[in-house]
Amino acid sequence: MARVHVIANQKGGVGKTTLAVNLAAVTTDVLSGDPEHSPVLVVSTDPQASTVWWADRVGDGLPFDFVQADQSPQDLARLRSIKQYQHVFVDTPGSLENGHILHAVLEAADDVIVPMPPEPLAFDPTSRTIEHVIKPRGLSYKVVVNAWEPRDGRSDLEQTRAFIEARRWPQAKVVVRRYKLQTRASADGLVVTQYPRNRVAMEAREDFFRLALELGFGGTAVAAAPVKTGVGRS
Ligand SMILES: Nc1ncnc2c1ncn2[C@@H]1O[C@H](COP(=O)(O)OP(=O)(O)O)[C@@H](O)[C@H]1O
Ligand SMILES: [Mg+2]
Question: Which residue's CA lies nearest to atom 11 of ligand 1?
Fold first, then answer.
């Protein structure tokens, strides 16, 4: 049965699409064995369809399967019954007008990822999404600080982390840094596993691999053999 991860924040431009496609890319990289069957599906439910545009740009070049859902409640409810994937990442619209889409999609969610840039302007809209939309549904969720610019220093990051902590929202330890390359890449329709192999690209890629590792997307851990304890062992 697929695990459905909904990427949500009713503020636009926080990194929903970026997280959806790049988490999908690194998860595919780790889980794929059979080139005929992708273990990962990305679903765009955004009528403005930046992910679709992304898919158009690269055509078959995306490493994971991709669909644009029509926005009917029936179509969205079907997300729940998807079986042939291990992970489904659902990109959602970034505006309040499309609240009905977000609500329908959350019906099918196993968990929610809430990207949030480290800037005070994002605090209120992120609060509204979490307190009024996610929490009342009892969904498990995690806030991911995205697009932190290390050159700007740690104060915005720390202020954001403190804000999240004060509200007792679960937050990812991994912070996704801001890379100019990332902004370029979305214009070029590239995902992080397709970046050129230079140092900055490797750092960007590392952020997404680390995040996917923290979120547990890499597959089922092999149980370690029980360690025998007792006397007489050297
Ligand atoms: N970590 C990041 N580093 C650099 N640019 C980013 C990062 N995350 C998002 N962006 C850029 O910010 C813009 C908005 O991101 P996007 O993922 O489209 O947000 P949303 O889907 O929430 O509206 C895009 O141009 C995207 O490339
Ligand atoms: Mg988007």
Answer: 183
Q: In 37-177, which residue ranges form alpha helices assigned H by DSSP?
A: 50-58, 73-77, 99-106, 123-128, 155-166
What does the pLDDT look like over 217-228, one tens digit per residue?
998 766 666 666
Neighbours of ion ligand 2 (CB under 5 A): 16-17, 50
CB 139 within 8 A of CB 108: no
**46 CA closest ligand 1 atom index:** 21
Looking at the CA of residue 204, tell me the nearest atom of ligand 1.
Answer: 1
> Global pTM?
0.91
Distance from the alpha carbon of residue 50 to the mean position of ligand 2, in angstroms? 6
Q: In the prediction, which pLDDT does 183 show?
A: 80
**Whole-number Cα distances in Å, 66 to 43, 45, 61, 112:** 6, 11, 11, 19
Distance in angstroms (rounded) separating the CA atoms of residues 178 and 187:
15
Instruction: Check pocket membership of 145 for ligand 1, CB cut-off 6 A.
Output: no
Instruction: Please name the residues in contact with 51: beta carbons below 8 A apart, sequence gap of 6 or more.
Output: 17, 20, 21, 42, 44, 66, 68, 91
